[in-house]
Amino acid sequence: MGAELDKILIYGSVGLLLFVVLWIYIRKQKKESKEVEEKIKVAKEEGLYEPVSLHPVVDVNSCIKSGACILACPEHDILGIRNGKATVINASRCVGHGACFHACPTQAISLFMGTEKRGVDLPHVSQNFETNVPGIFIAGEMGGMGLIKNAVEQGKQAVENLAKGIKPKHTNDYDLVVIGAGPAGISASLQAHKMGLKTITLEQDTLGGTVYTFPRQKIVMTSPMELPLYGQAKLYETSKQELLDLWTSVLGKHKIEIQERKKVEEIVAENGGFCVKTKTDESFSTQKVLLAIGRRGTPRKLGIPGEDTQKVAYRLLEPELIHKKQIVVVGGGDSAIESALLLMEQNEVTLSYRKDTFSRLKPKNSENIKKAIADHKISAVLNSNLVAIDTNKVVLQLNGEKNTIELSNDLVYIFAGGELPTAFLKKAGIKISTKFGEAILTHKKQA
Fold it and tell me: Rounded to whole angstroms, how far apart are CA atoms 21 and 82?
């Protein structure tokens, strides 16, 4: 009888312990879910819930709540756990590095481009980075991957793929013409040199492409990357200038010259390959072409009076040289916010944005701009559009109203994004389609 009682006590104690553990687990899960739901609520209020480009989509039937995706993501609160499954919180803050995709042990995450309501225009590119025009490849931002680390990797992989189709005894001047010397173009140029391909790289502006247009001290890299002919670049909190110095050093060491100020106007199929023609009437005959020109190479214009005057700029290079000016910054993305913050200490800055709240901002930028506005260091005119630029003033129109306001002004900086070079791509025969929530990176597709 005593032995049976002991068994009952033991089993009862174990059962009680299991019950307590389960109760704590469920309570913790409910608490986590409540916190995530609150974050989603805030994200919706701040316009950060809906994705604007590349973003993760979770298959809840495959998710096992390992949390690996959350730990792998270097950004903040992109993903969270709700009701025992991973879910997206601040989708518009996703920068598309794909760490969550690779970290998930059950392959429950795919990367999607666009949503059912918001489409994103992209050129047709295969898994091997080749467009619908055989021999023309695309890597980097124009193909939907804007993060520097991803662009560098794509440039390398694209060259590895296109090299397989280069004929050993062709009569073209080059094996490969790389168009664009941003992250993808530089990586491609290094990889091509490593593989012994006869290559020329053409850049319409300056080495670095879009990166060159960032303010000098802007942090552009927060994680390591693998750079051809260099190896693992252990970069943390790396500024624009530090990254440009690295690229210049590696290119110089291997005597790889970037042809700057060479804007490509046309790509024509010719002689079993292509003829690449520049704005200065130069021609380059090549077997393969890699486009790494980015989406923001051509700034989006507002189409308003006075926009073509010298007081208007679409990038901010040396803010420390600008002082005692009345400046209007147009835009609500990270570039506009960062520029306004850099200019505010020595100037009178007004920030004009067409919406009623800032969205898609990095957490630090969001915090800093709110503080700057609260401290009256920046004047923000939300729900407004810049409609005219004059010599000494600008005109803002308030959304939903016929009223306009005039501001004394010396300089205007416009950050309205960039335009996909649609006409150039179509002229080369490259198809462009609008992605409405389509998976561009998924384990199931690769299986």
Answer: 20
Residue type present at position 417? G
Residues 89, 140, single domain; the answer is no
Please state the domain count of the chain: 3
Residue 181 identity: A
Are 232 and 320 part of one and the same domain? Answer: no
242 and 179 housed in the same domain: yes
CA 222, distance to chain mean position in Å, is 13
Structure tokens at 156: 């390398």
Instruction: Decide if 176 is inside a domain.
Output: yes
Rounded distance between C-alpha atoms, residue 358 and residue 147, angstroms:
21
Residues 157 and 253 grouped into a single domain: yes
Report the relative pairing of strands 326-330 and 199-202 from DSSP bridges.
Answer: unpaired
Phi first, then psi: give them for residue 250, nearest 5 degrees: -65, -45
pLDDT in tens, 406-446: 999 999 999 987 777 888 899 999 998 877 777 777 775 44
321 shares its domain with 390 = yes
DSSP 128-195: TSB-SSTTEEE-SGGGT--SHHHHHHHHHHHHHHHGGG--TT--SSEEEEEE--SHHHHHHHHHHHHT
Helix (H, G, I), strand (E, B) or coil at 269: strand
Q: What's the domain range around 266?
A: 125-298+421-430
CA 128 to chain centre: 20
pLDDT in tens, 254-311: 999 999 999 999 999 998 899 999 998 999 999 999 999 876 556 788 989 999 888 9
Is residue 444 domain-resident? no
d(CA 392, CA 412): 11
Q: Does 7 map to a domain?
A: no
